[in-house]
Write a structure and sequence with these properties.
Elements lengths: L11 H8 L6 H9 L8 H12 L2 H6 L2 H5 L6 H24 L6 H12 L6 E7 L5 E9 L9 H10 L4 E7 L9 H15 L4 E9 L2 E4 L7
Parallel strand pairs: 3-4
Antiparallel strand pairs: 1-2, 1-3, 4-5
Helix pairs in contact: 2-3, 6-7, 8-9
């Protein structure tokens, strides 16, 4: 059955207008983006197929053109639009963090880090540099690959913190394995960085581990 044959209050667009965007499921939101389905499938059916195949919205956003093109009805045009939407979302969250005290808006920080790191195929270490009002001055990817205490250099982190005149920092790295659990190496690295930055009066507010849609906070676990 085509979406146009559904009851008006069940159609994604009408439901959004009547009940608000937060009332829509991931499949319904994606269906609005897709606009039309394919022969034998509505846009919602196609959206559900995409979510099943890639696991989540983040999984869809992380897929490359070859992977997406394997789904009937998805081509280069939709791929380009998806990438644009994803990047706009990330930039909007980045703008919010630059304008707000990040400690008063932890949800924005979490969502930004999920979008930034959630589905990367390799391990990446980033640093958010904050001013005295806990607003983001800059964000930099400093290291990539297998992260250990010997591959992430404290002196480089200190140098970048001084360059940005940061009062504090937030660390984040991803676990491509999908397991959001700190290792002994993660804990040792965090303490080494914390001690190095303390010498120049820069505080470490948190260290996040991102694994897909899951996020672990060192601060919340009492590890800082």
């Amino acid at each position: 059955m085509a979406i146009t044959d559904w009851p008006a209050n069940e159609r994604p667009r009408e439901k959004l207008l009547q009940q608000g965007v937060e009332m829509l499921s991931d499949a319904e939101l994606l269906a609005i983006f897709l606009r039309v389905g394919v022969v034998g499938k509505s846009a919602v059916d196609l959206a559900r197929d995409l979510l099943t195949r890639f696991g989540s919205l983040n999984g869809i956003f992380a897929a490359d053109l070859v992977e997406l093109s394997q789904v009937h009805g998805i081509g280069s045009s939709k791929y380009v639009q998806l990438k644009a939407i994803f990047e706009m979302s990330r930039r909007a969250l980045n703008e919010e963090m630059r304008e707000r005290d990040v400690l008063s808006s932890p949800k924005q920080v979490s969502e930004y880090l999920r979008l930034k790191l959630g589905n990367l195929p390799r391990e990446v270490f980033i640093v958010l540099f904050l001013d005295a009002q806990n607003r983001v001055l800059a964000q930099e990817e400093l290291f990539a690959g297998t992260l250990t205490q010997t591959s992430v250099y404290p002196r480089e982190v200190v140098k970048r913190a001084l360059y940005h005149n940061a009062a504090s920092v937030i660390f984040a790295h991803n676990h491509p394995s999908g397991v959001a659990q700190q290792s002994n190496s993660d804990e040792m690295l965090t303490q080494a960085l914390r001690q190095a930055l303390a010498l120049v009066d820069v505080r470490v507010l948190d260290h996040f581990i991102v694994a897909g849609n899951t996020l672990l906070s060192f601060a919340e676990r009492g590890l800082l």
